[in-house]
Write a structure and sequence with these properties.
Layout (H helix, E strand, L loop, with lengths): L26 H13 L5 E6 L2 H11 L4 E7 L10 H4 L2 H10 L6 E2 L12 E2 L1 H4 L13 E7 L8 H8 L5 E5 L5 H4 L1 H9 L3
Parallel strand pairs: 1-2, 2-5, 5-6
Antiparallel strand pairs: 3-4
Helix pairs in contact: 1-2
């Protein structure tokens, strides 16, 4: 959809989340991969993180804020320095992480009801705390897309807090967590509005 509107979309498959296993991948490794992708482009970018990806885009933006026009968080974690997915999420999701990692202790298997393309997530990505200088806040536009159509979301309080912050724009959608799959046209419209 974005390409049809004349934009270049560059998906980044993070270590351990593609076909090749990388059980020791952690948050720092994923941030480094996205920061490298950002630095390899000369133009200003809109970078998007969904769910755990909010941790990654925050870290990448902290490394190279001047190259980023907008940050878009899609039903995602928005960390402060020292936070981890583990510290930010709810007890329900911590229980899911523990259950998911039981088979090998390194990779958190996705629940069976999710998109079949989901891959096991290296547990280190959920446990490692992020180290932010605060430079990511220099990005001029920050938007948060909240998905309100699923039970047990750990993001509802965050959405409410950001909706009162004048530095953020917030968009509420009535759909499940996988916004890109469930509302692709709506998400594309939101992203096109960032450029």
């Amino acid at each position: 959809i974005l390409a049809a509107h004349g934009h270049k979309a560059v998906p980044v498959t993070l270590a351990g989340l593609g076909e090749a296993p990388a059980p020791l991948a952690n948050l720092d490794a994923h941030i480094g991969e996205v920061a490298h992708a950002v630095k390899s482009h000369d133009d200003e970018l809109v970078i998007v993180g969904q769910s755990y990806g909010g941790m990654v885009v925050s870290g990448a933006a902290d490394v190279a804020p001047s190259q980023i026009r907008a940050l878009v968080y899609v039903d995602a974690y928005v960390p402060d320095s020292g936070d981890s997915v583990w510290s930010l999420t709810t007890p329900r999701f911590r229980d899911l992480f523990v259950a998911g990692v039981k088979s090998d202790g390194l990779n958190c298997a996705p629940p069976p009801n999710l998109d079949p393309r989901c891959r096991p997530q290296p547990i280190g990505t959920f446990l490692q705390s992020i180290n932010l200088s605060g430079r990511w806040r220099e990005v001029p536009r920050k938007s948060y897309v909240g998905a309100f159509g699923w039970e047990g979301s750990p993001f509802l309080d965050l959405y409410e807090r950001l909706s009162r912050d004048p530095g953020w724009s917030t968009i509420a959608l009535d759909c499940g967590h996988n916004v890109a799959r469930l509302k692709p046209d709506v998400l594309a419209h939101i992203l096109l509005g960032q450029v």
